[in-house]
Amino acid sequence: MTKKPKPRWWKPLWIAILFLTIASGFVSYFLLNVSLERTVSAVALTFFCIGIAYYIRVKPSMRVNRALYILLGITPLGFVLSVAYALFIGRYVTGWLWGWFNIIVTIGILIASAFIGDWIGKRRSYQLPLSL
Predict the structure, then answer these.
(1) Is residue 39 located within the same domain as residue 92?
(2) C-beta separation of 65 from 118 below 8 A
(3) CA 119, CA 70: separation in Å to the nearest integer?
(4) CA-to-CA distance for 32 and 16, rounded, in angstroms?
(5) Torsion-angle region of residue 34: left (phi > 0), alpha (psi -120 to 50) or beta?
(6) Cα dist from 5 to 8, 53, 63, 131, whole Å
(7) Distances (CA, A) of 15 to 8, 9, 53, 55
(8) Distance of CA 110 to the CA centre of its chain
(9) Do residue 54 and residue 77 come from a single domain?
(10) Which terminus of the chain has fewer CB atoms gathered within 10 Å of its CB, N or C?
(11) Which residues contact 6 (CB under 8 A, 6 or more apart)?
(12) 83 and 123 belong to one structural domain
């Protein structure tokens, strides 16, 4: 598989995202009167997320893509099934022993959904959608 060249706007996009993050930090602190601690922590978290996105999109690797497929299996599928189990089945079961049973079933649902995410990733050769 040959690598496609990155578009011309790729590098300016990441630079613009960083400058917009810094500008939004200044706006939130000076104009919206958000506390300095909250502003700095929000900008730091945003920089962290931008770094992860940059790493995923610009320097993809098989290990990172596999971890993303596993997390994407756990997050939407496992979370939805766990909440559905807790709301519909877990509501009617009470008692100390049944509480542990519900926890074990929920963990089992999350593990099974991680395997489903890995299986989907394996079928796609761990290539992320829209990856360059």
Answers:
(1) no
(2) no
(3) 9
(4) 22
(5) beta
(6) 9, 19, 22, 12
(7) 13, 10, 13, 14
(8) 15
(9) no
(10) N
(11) 132
(12) yes
> CA 25 to CA 45: how far, in whole Å?
12
Number of compact structural domains in the chain: 2
Q: Residue 12 corresponds to which tokens in the numbers above? A: 């300016």
Q: DSSP labels for 47-90?
A: HHHHHHHHHHHHS--HHHHHHHHHHHIIIIIIHHHHHHIIIIIT
Q: Tally the C-alpha atoms within 13 A of residue 128's C-alpha that lie toward its C-beta.
A: 22
Identify whether residues 11 and 51 lie together within a single domain.
yes
What integer pLDDT is reported at residue 94 of this predicted model? Answer: 57
Both 38 and 100 in a single domain? Answer: no
Cβ–Cβ under 8 Å, residues 68 and 56: yes
| pTM confidence score | 0.60
User: Considering 9, 41, 59, which residue would you say is the last residue of a domain?
Assistant: 59
Convert the pLDDT of each residue in 46-93 to its tens digit: 999 888 888 777 777 788 888 888 888 888 888 888 888 877 775 666
